[in-house]
Amino acid sequence: MPRSLLLLIRRRLFWLALLLTVWLLCSGQAQASTLASRLQAFPQWPGKLALQEAHGDLVYPDWMQGTWNLTSTLVDLAAPLAPAVVTPGFASNQAMVNQPITCQVRFVPVPQRVMGLVPRVLTPQVVADRAFNGLNLARAYLGEASVNAVKVDSANPNRQLTRLAQGRQLESTLMARATESPEANQFITAERFQQIFRGGTIPYLNERGNHHPLHLSTKLYRSRPGYSGLSIPPGCRFF
User: N or C end of the chain, less CB within 10 A?
Assistant: First the structure.
């Protein structure tokens, strides 16, 4: 093959690789921008959202720090494999549809530690108090007597165990997530959990997605430190 032809092919392969790289980068940005539009389309969601693998805890904006009064409303339930497969609690949860649930949730600053020859502590990042939030929300939905405790894995903040009454357990592991901040006072997250329910005749394995936007109004911001009124729109879960 002539040398000139080889050079031409190499140049075209180089530009093809460059174009593919740019396309992939742009695709990632386009994916992130779909969080807001997907939320607006609820409940008409055609399928699962493509999310990135979760590493570490979810970091929230600084204005989320503190304890908030949460209102959450379940607006729909679906069991695509029913009646062959129905997860525990599905039937009883029908009574919760369109019933506002209130509880407290908390976001706390956690120091960032950089290990090395000289360990350093950087500016704290705001994360959810998952044990506190999970316990309060579970008891708000199921009742005080139905939930004994919520424990977060000390080695993995994305894994937690909910101990229920009568020896039942719900293990939740966060597998993937995406975030978006359209404006300085808005924060949208999407997370996908894998859950294992133990305590019945057979364990149940299912997958759950959370998609929730958070918005800080000027009124709430000016009222700090008296936090009140964190509202999760219908169809969204907070964990």
Answer: N
